[in-house]
Structure formats: structure tokens, C-alpha cells
């Protein structure tokens, strides 16, 4: 996937190809992305929702990277978590089938985002999963229950993704599978699977705030002792 820019977006690109709405994550050279991506994702998902020509939505990455996490940038923790709640809720409730096309490594935020979609397709050789110290913010404690392998390892059909596809023809093969797989049944199953998403987000965000406070307090103690 080439590095395509679209007017109005800085962290994602969005367009329609036939009946598929494609949202591309625009990561930096380290494979990470600014937290502001969440707002743009909600905008693009909203546009896909109201476009009658879009029958399914696919999230993917550029240049053989999906997303290796969020950049650590200064900001308000409450605002970050509120935006994360909005994004998770949007993906959980969208009335069209959603697919994550992971064409490169997907770690932490990237994998948590993918877990909110109906189906995850990964190019052969790509790795997916979470660092041990990662704190969920998109309902990963709930959505991750669909697979039994969540550590950072190579993608394996049924263990941490729905399908592993050949790298050279990944996007073409993914589109063909989506044409056959998309259905309202996927949407219904997602809503059942994420029925308790709000409860999961409440617990995750409380833990995230506790971790942030403890981390800040520990840093202040360390600096005060120097």
C-alpha cells in the first residue's frame, strides 16, 4: 500500500474501491502513529457508514506496516481515553462488516484496533500481539478473548487471526475473500461478542489512569531524589 494522502486527514487515508471502503493507517518511520488517529478513524468510519455504495470497511496499513502502537505524546489522559471509548464504540456498533487487513506487524494499539473488527487477515510472516506491559484502551481485555495467543508472535490462522494469506498477493486475495465473506451475520456476531464492551472499557480506563498516576508519582520521586 503506497503512502497516499487524502485531503482532510493527517493520520489516515480513506477512499472507496468498488463496494469496499478502505481506511489506511499512516504510521511514522518507527511504525507508530499519533493518538489523534483515533478522531480521524471515527470520521472515516462515519463517512463509510453513510455511504450507500460502501458495503464493507477494511482497515489496513501502508508500506508493509499496520501499526506498532501509539506515539507517547503530551496530552490529557482523560481526553485520550474518552476518544478511545468513542472509537471502540464506533467500531463495535457500525452496521457494516469490518475487516482488518494486516499487511505488516500489528502490536499493542494496532492489534487492539484489529480485534474490534469482524475478521482479521494477516500477510504471511507478519507478527501480531501485545507487549506484556501494554495497557488496553480499546476493549482488548474483552475482544482478545476470541483468540488464545495474544503475545507478540507470527500470525497463525485460528490462534491470533482469522486467516494468514500470501504476502505477494495479500491485498488482492483479501478483497476477494471479503466479497464472499461480508454479511449481516458478521455484524450480529460482533455485537454479541462485544456485548459487554462498555464494562471492559470502564475497567481498562480506570486501570490506565491508575498506572499513569503511579508512573508520574514514581518519576517525581526519582527526580526529587537526584
Give the class from helix and strand content and strand pairing.
alpha/beta
- The CATH homologous superfamily corresponds to 2-enoyl-CoA Hydratase, Chain A, domain 1
Count of discrete structural domains: 1
Order of helices and strands: EEHEHEEHEEHEEHHH
User: What is the CATH class name?
Assistant: Alpha Beta
Q: Just name the CATH architecture.
A: Alpha-Beta Complex
Major β-sheet profile = 6 strands, mixed
Number of H- or I-type helical stretches: 7
Mean pLDDT level: 91
Percent of residues in helices: 40-55%
Number of strands: 9
| Strand order within the widest beta sheet | 1-2-3-4-6-9
Rg (CA only)? 17 Å
Kindly estimate the percentage of residues that lie in beta strands according to DSSP: 15-25%
Terminus-to-terminus distance = 48 Å
Fold and architecture overview:
This protein is α/β, with parallel strands linked by helices and 226 residues long. The protein has a single domain, classed as 2-enoyl-CoA Hydratase, Chain A, domain 1 (Alpha-Beta Complex), CATH 3.90.226.10. The chain is 41% helix and 17% strand. The chain has seven helices and nine strands, in the order ββαβαββαββαββααα. The strands form two sheets. Strands 1-2-3-4-6-9 form a six-stranded mixed β-sheet, with helices on both faces. Strands 5-7-8 form a three-stranded mixed β-sheet, covered by helices on one side. The N terminus is likely disordered.
